[in-house]
Amino acid sequence: MSNRSQQWHGTTLVNDIAWGDNGKGRIIDYLASDADLVIRWAGGPNAGHTVNNERGEFKFHLMPSGIFEATCILADTVAVDPDILIAEMDSLQKRGVTVSEKNLMISPDITMILDWHKRRDNLNEVARGGSAIGTTGKGMGPLYADRAERTGIQIHHLYSSDFEERLLREFTWQTRLARLMGGERLLSELSANEFAHMSREQFMKMAKKALSDSPYDFEDMLQRLYRARDRFKPMVCDVIPVIWDAFDNGKNILGEGAQGALLDIDLGTTPFVTSSHPTRGGFSIATGIYDIDNVYGATRAYTARVGGGPFPTELTDSIGDHLVEVGKEYGTTTGRRRRCGWFDAVISRFGARIAGATEVAITKLDVLDELDEVKICTGYEVGRTHYGVGQIPSVKPRFLSQAKPVYETMAGWQEPTSGARSFEDLPDDAQKYVLRIQELLDTNVKFVSVGPQREEMFSM
Ligand code: IMP
Ligand code: MG
């Protein structure tokens, strides 16, 4: 690569230490010129990564944000919705960036999100009634459930001779499942075991029925998948040897996180989480690489989340509205208004640890510019017990929903920061704010951003 800035070496990840949308896309874009490989491992089209560079603004869901600078990989654990990936390839092409086998490799072991995953995602949310997770509706939960069930259609299936037959089987089963979820008593007709072992004649009878009465359109799906098969073909390759070869030869590998550590299915704020591992551990699971040099943990200068679940520092007053409007806090993927609040150092420290962060990146500092004072949550009160940073027992709703934030108030700086190109350029009170976050997280601040453009971020 010609335009290296030599900011980092080895294997570096960019993770989000909270509930997502903390500016990973722009940090990746900033770091990618030093990368030989950029690897995406978590989530799928539920992600929304915004990149602003000299070519303009780009919003990606599946395409790695490193696509402008390096060779990118979609690892096995990414959930690919083929229509969305193709649409992103097309829109990049229209803007002069060609996506081909030269800059994108797609693992054949990826499981694809198909129409039924989205439908089941929405049906599940309806079934949860008042306690919906507030998913993005992109099919994540059902996709990863199928993967854990060891079922589903993977990218390599597109290239096998029995693909059409496999799709028909899946279609038939999913059609029955949809009718079942809609309240029909079908399972008593035939057990899953009988379904698996039925004769071809029996199966064809059932498939015929499904084809004539399904919420899904078999022919349409088949055509879309054929299009994906042809489009992806040059890019599909076994990615593990490529990753290990790069690692063994001392190449620079950048892991592009998605979502946020607090959305981890196990260690996050379960059940208000996503269905994958947006953490350092998740990267290792997807790549077999355990030796990681840096993990930059992204956080805004305040805290936000989208979807359901407890959020101790949420502001529902005019300051909350100010953060939403100035910070343009509307979801990249769903357009939903994000819930915003003061910086929560307690949950962020917990999240930084799950993320495996070695350093943090504070984004959107400029969003606080106009406030006359700023608050940081430095502890929770639960009943009569006080918990400081590093002391909470859990981030699950049973604990978090009872936590009352304890704030420390600091002076606002009330000056624009977007022109700052170094820490020293920041107003004194903004410097103090950044240093206080660093202290509370017990992790060095590596980057600060003061605006969406590439040049509006500096390293410390
Ligand atoms: P799902 O991943 O669509 O199942 O959504 C589960 C929860 O994770 C919901 O609260 C979503 O709003 C949240 N979520 C999923 N992906 C992202 C993301 O990329 N950024 C922020 N929140 C996300
Ligand atoms: Mg996002």
Question: Ranges with pLDDT <50 over ≥5 residues?
Answer: none
Shape: globular
Count the helices. How many? 14
Structural class: alpha/beta
Residue share in helix: 25-40%
Largest beta sheet, briefly?
9 strands, mixed
Strand residues, percent: 15-25%
Strand order of the largest sheet: 6-5-2-7-1-8-12-16-17
Through-space gap between termini: 24 Å
Number of β-strand runs: 17
The radius of gyration is 23 Å
Mean pLDDT figure: 94
Small-molecule components bound = inosinic acid, magnesium ion
Describe this structure in words.
- This protein is globular.
- Helices cover 33% and strands 18% of the residues.
- The mean pLDDT is 94.
- It is built from 14 helices and 17 strands.
- The protein has helices spanning 24-31, 82-94, 115-127, 140-148, 163-181, 192-197, 200-212, 218-232, 239-248, 280-287, 318-326, 345-355, 397-400, 428-441, and strands at 11-16, 37-40, 49-53, 56-60, 71-74, 104-106, 253-256, 294-300, 303-305, 339-341, 343-344, 359-363, 373-382, 385-388, 404-411, 444-449, 457-459.
- α3 runs parallel beside α5.
- The chain is of the alpha/beta class and 460 residues long.
- The strands form 4 sheets. The chain has a 9-stranded mixed sheet, sandwiched between helices.
- Bound molecules: inosinic acid and magnesium ion.
- The site of inosinic acid has 22 residues, from α4.
